[in-house]
Structures are given as C-alpha cells and as structure tokens.
Specification:
Largest sheet: none
Helix content: over 70%
Distance between the termini: 91 Å
Strand content: under 5%
Order of helices and strands: H
Number of helices: 1
Oligomer: single chain
Radius of gyration: 29 Å
Number of strands: 0
Length: 70
C-alpha cells in the first residue's frame, strides 16, 4: 500500500509541476502575442507613412537631384 501512496504522491507532484509549466508558457505566449500585435500595428503605420512619402515625391514629377558630391 505504501508503494501506491508514494506513486500517487509522485504523480500529484508531477501534475502540479506540469500545471505550473503550462501556466508559465501561457503567460509567455500571451505576452508575445501582445508584442506581436503592437509591432504589426507599428509596421502598418510606418508602411503607410512611407507610401505617402513616396506618393508625394512621385507627384512632384521632377526627378530627385543628384547628391552634392556628384
């Protein structure tokens, strides 16, 4: 009977450790998704700014003058 009790104790400890690991992983993944979401929005805004700047440059019609060292 004591072997069964020790086995159950080991299984319960293992289950507790696995639950803790799952909770830690869940917190990590949730935080990573928040970061990814924020960065995705930032990239979208920056892409929009670059496209607007390119459109303004194209609408001027004149080619960009060469740099002063030419």
């Amino acid at each position: 009977m004591s072997d069964d009790g020790a086995r159950i104790d080991r299984l319960e400890m293992r289950l507790t450790e696995q639950d803790r690991a799952i909770e830690d992983l869940n917190r990590t993944i949730t935080e990573q998704w928040r970061i990814i979401d924020r960065l995705t929005r930032q990239v979208a805004v920056l892409t929009e700014h670059v496209e607007e700047a390119a459109a303004r440059t194209e609408s001027r019609g004149a080619p960009e003058p060469p740099p002063p060292h030419y």
